[in-house]
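> @MW can you paste both from yesterday?
MW: sure, first one:
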Amino acid sequence: MQFDHLVIFVADLDSAINDFTDLGFNVTRGGSHGLTENALIIFANQSYIELLALKPFYTNPLMAIANRLGILQWQSERKGSLYCRLLRWVNGDVGPVDCCVRVTDLEATLERWKEGGLDILNSETFARERTDGEIVRWHLGGVKNHRLPILLQDITALDQRVPLADAVHANQGAELREVQFALADSGVARDMASRFLGAKSGADNPLMVGDVKISFAEQSVQGKLCLSIAYPGKQVKQLDIGKAYGLSIKLVPALS
């Protein structure tokens, strides 16, 4: 497993791109898939932040009413589809909504989760048309429980979906080092992650998903998610949370 990306839902993609550019990131337009469009902030370990917005048609009053009434959610839950979780991304407030972990065998991973007592949602296949017209494809699978990430398996090459050429930032951010979740039930979430993400954790064994550390803390006013990104500087830098849509981002010395 490898931590793949964090999803940030935004009301207006252009505004979000400008805000994260002001924070010193190189923001790459990812293209469109279905009812959404996105932009990516890619790091050197091929993890990234996804800025996700609804296309203009889906923000019209009728679609908004249908979404708020839960009609789309109800339809997807009837089918036991992963869409019942994905629709929650665009049915609430802006800010961090979910994360994805990359696997090489989605079916085998989901089977292990099922054997562990989890209710598995029906997996789905997705595609995104990049701005250059190239199509990238992947599978998503997972469970309703938001304490666990969505699982992703690439169909097309990873480099097509997450191009490393774009992983150069004015603020010198390099690799995503740590993702910290602030939750009311942080202990439960930590135990579940340790059990199902296949990584040992404890005082001497931090929970690692690939090369990214996953940690948990009690809820605070700082935000429900905190990212630590390695950079070549000597001092920890806290970026403006107001421009990061509730995401707390720290640049930390690469050698620390």
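MW: second:
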Amino acid sequence: MAIDLKKQKLNTPGKRLKHIRLLLRVSRSYLQEKYGLPEVTLKSWENCTTKLTLAGAERCVKIYRGENLIVSEDWIMDGIGLDPKATLTVSHYFAIPTNKKLPVKDDEVAMVRDANVFKSNYSNAVIMIVSNDDMRPFYSPGDYIGGKMRYGGDIEAAVNKDCIIYLKNEERFFRRLIKSSSGDYNLTCLNPNETTAEPVLYRVEIDGVAPVIWHRWKDG
């Protein structure tokens, strides 16, 4: 089986972070001065001496969008989704008014734009890229899904729905939300195959959920 040398070189969140910064040809000191991200913090993330958290990835996403590079938290954390190098050549699409005809050649570019439109319509919207086979046959790896976040007592209304789920330990999942007879929340797959280590996650502590109301898959 052929080895993807690029993925091999970008196999950690830190390496992917550094890759983005080198694409932009900016220094850590520049990012500190312009955005207030401490140089020592970014260096520790890039060198993997400090674990990058989801909150840290979200902060970096906002910073790099300020530099006209569109990248997702999923790509930084897990290497999933559109390569940020490609977004350098398509970011101008996001600046074109929606009543203009877009010369989109790559449908994945259109997927990113569609996701951006969905997210811009709701202040509490979240987007996730499906990363595995756990929710087949309805969702496949590479699909984009979106929903509106719910917290506290509003989580109850998401039971028995397919949701983007944020746990209190900062982990994220795309699963069906189930409530047990004892009142605990469990997360279950639709396709519990042999590659799924934990088909059901029991008694999870949920921070917030977003039932899926938007689903976009690649054409072709």
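> thanks! Confidence is low (pLDDT under 50) at residues 1-5, 89-104.
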